[in-house]
Amino acid sequence: MKIGFAIISHHEPEQLLRLVQTINAMFGVPPIACHHNFALSSLNKALFPPNVRFVLPHEMTRLGHITVFNAALSALSLLRNKDRPDWYILLSGSDYPARPADQIISDLSNSNYDAFLDNREILYNALSS
After folding, report:
1. Measuring CA to CA, which residue among 82, 93, 88, 94 is closest to residue 50?
2. I want to staple 52 with a disulfide (CB 3.0 to 4.6 A). Which of 36, 38, 44, 48 is the partner?
3. CA-based nearest residue to 48, from 38, 62, 34, 58
């Protein structure tokens, strides 16, 4: 089974590089497509391993705007056109794997589903009771 990773990044290139290195160590250097907004934060592409492709030209993304969705589609399309993985995992540059790779691979391999979606509401400045 081939898993491809699409990552959307806006800033913190060191954090993005750490995520890529972790994914490579966990999943044996899988295909990774990254959409990074180079206008918001410079990034040295030479520091990234050869399995990482960057969407060029990049989309001028804005937080909470449709451009972030467009950037995700661009990264997913790059994966589809170049690598054709069986599964696609969409991450942000600030994400970090929370489960071991063997559990993720087992769940995907034994699934009867075509997709998994998860979202969490984040409440800022919420008073705790």
Report:
1. 82
2. 48
3. 34
